[in-house]
C-alpha cells in the first residue's frame, strides 16, 4: 500500500513533467494533463487533429521529458507490418535465423499519422498495445516497461487516410484533440519557436524506473464500490443510447477506472471520486462509440453525446465501502 510519501513523490515528478512539456506545448494544459494521466495509467494515447497544431510535438515532448527509449514510426501507405514488429533474418555466421527487432521495441513509440498506413499495418500494433508483447514466427518477445504508444492521426476526411478500425481505437485509453491555439499562445509560440527549437532544449526530468514506481502508486489508489457502479452505469448508458449505434466496450470501463486512479493520484488523493470519472468520460469514451445517423445529421458528435450522458446518469450516493 502506497503511503503519503509516495503520493508526494508522484505529485512532484508529475509537476516537473508538466512544466517541461509546457515549455514546448503552448496553451494546452488540459491536453498535457491527459497525456500524463494516460502514461501513469499504463495506457496508450491517440492524438487527433488537423496538420500543424503540434500533435507530434506533444508526443515527442512527453517522451523526451521522461528519458526513456523512443522510436518514431512515420506511417505511410507502403509501411509493412514487419517494419513495426521486426523480422527474422538468416545469419550466415551462426547459420540460423536471427530476430531483428522492429520500431515497437521502445518505451515510448510515437506513431505519426497512423491512419495513413493500411489496415493490415495498423493491426500490427494490436498485440503490442494490449499484451505488451510481439509474436514473430511463433516466438513471443516481451516489451520493456514502461511501454506507451502515442499515435497521431489526421481526421478521416483528409485525403489519403484509412479510418482506424474499432478494434484498434478501443486499444487507446484516451483520445485528445489539440485544437488551434489561442492568439496569445500563438504569439508566444512565434517568440519561442521561430528562432529556436524548444524540443531540442528540453531536458529529461525523470526516468523509466521512477515512472514504474509512480505506476505502482497509481495502482494502489482506492476505488469504492459505488464509484465502480457509477462507471459501469455510465458505460452502460452508451449501449442503450438512441443517439449511438455502437456503445463503449467493457475494456473502456477498465480504462476509465485506471485513468481515474491516475487522475486521483495526480490530485494527491488516495481514492477516486465520481468527479474523476466525469472529467475523463469524454477523452476515454468518445473515440470508442459511433453516433447514429440521426445524431450526426443533428450536428451532435460523440463528445456531445457522452457529455449529455454524463449529465443524465445519476451520481452515486456517498457511502463507506
Automatic annotation (TrEMBL):
Domain spans labelled ChlI/MoxR AAA lid: 237-296
GO molecular function terms noted in the UniProt entry: ATP binding; ATP hydrolysis activity
InterPro entries: ATPase_AAA-3, CbbQ/NirQ/NorQ/GpvN, ChlI/MoxR_AAA_lid, P-loop_NTPase
Ranges where the ATPase AAA-3 domain occurs: 44-173
One Pfam family hit: AAA_lid_2
Signal peptide positions on this chain: none
Alphabetical list of Gene3D superfamilies matching this protein: Magnesium chelatase subunit I, C-Terminal domain, P-loop containing nucleotide triphosphate hydrolases
Protein name in the entry: AAA family ATPase
Gene source species: Kribbella sindirgiensis
Amino acid at each position: 500500500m502506497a503511503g503519503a510519501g509516495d503520493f508526494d513523490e508522484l505529485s512532484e515528478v508529475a509537476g516537473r513533467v508538466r512544466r517541461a512539456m509546457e515549455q514546448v506545448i503552448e496553451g494546452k494544459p488540459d491536453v498535457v494533463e491527459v497525456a500524463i494521466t494516460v502514461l501513469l495509467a499504463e495506457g496508450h494515447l491517440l492524438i487527433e487533429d488537423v496538420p500543424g497544431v503540434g500533435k507530434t510535438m506533444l508526443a515527442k515532448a512527453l517522451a523526451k521529458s521522461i528519458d526513456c527509449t523512443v522510436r518514431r514510426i512515420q506511417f505511410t501507405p507502403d509501411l509493412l507490418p514487419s517494419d513495426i514488429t521486426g523480422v527474422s533474418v538468416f545469419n550466415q555466421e551462426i547459420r540460423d535465423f536471427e530476430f531483428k527487432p522492429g520500431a515497437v521495441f521502445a518505451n515510448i513509440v510515437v506513431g505519426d499519422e497512423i491512419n495513413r498506413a493500411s489496415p493490415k499495418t495498423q493491426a500490427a500494433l494490436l498485440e503490442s498495445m494490449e499484451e505488451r508483447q510481439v509474436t514473430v514466427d511463433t516466438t513471443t518477445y516481451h516489451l520493456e516497461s514502461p511501454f506507451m504508444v502515442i499515435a497521431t492521426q489526421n481526421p478521416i476526411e483528409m485525403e489519403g487516410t484509412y479510418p482506424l478500425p474499432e478494434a484498434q481505437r478501443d486499444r487507446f485509453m484516451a483520445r485528445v484533440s489539440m485544437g488551434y491555439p489561442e492568439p496569445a499562445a500563438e504569439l508566444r509560440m512565434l517568440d519561442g519557436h521561430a528562432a529556436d527549437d524548444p524540443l531540442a532544449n528540453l531536458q529529461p526530468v525523470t526516468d523509466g524506473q521512477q515512472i514504474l514506481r509512480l505506476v505502482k502508486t497509481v495502482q494502489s489508489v482506492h476505488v469504492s464500490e459505488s464509484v465502480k457502479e457509477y462507471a459501469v452505469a455510465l458505460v452502460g448508458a452508451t449501449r442503450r443510447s438512441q443517439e449511438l449505434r455502437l456503445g463503449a466496450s467493457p475494456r473502456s470501463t477498465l480504462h476509465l477506472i485506471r485513468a481515474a486512479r491516475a487522475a486521483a493520484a495526480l490530485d494527491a488523493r488516495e481514492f477516486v471520486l465520481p468527479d474523476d470519472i466525469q472529467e475523463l468520460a469524454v477523452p476515454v469514451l468518445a473515440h470508442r462509440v459511433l453516433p447514429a445517423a440521426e445524431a450526426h445529421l443533428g450536428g451532435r458528435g460523440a463528445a456531445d453525446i457522452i457529455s449529455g450522458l454524463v449529465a443524465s446518469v445519476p451520481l452515486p450516493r456517498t457511502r463507506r465501502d
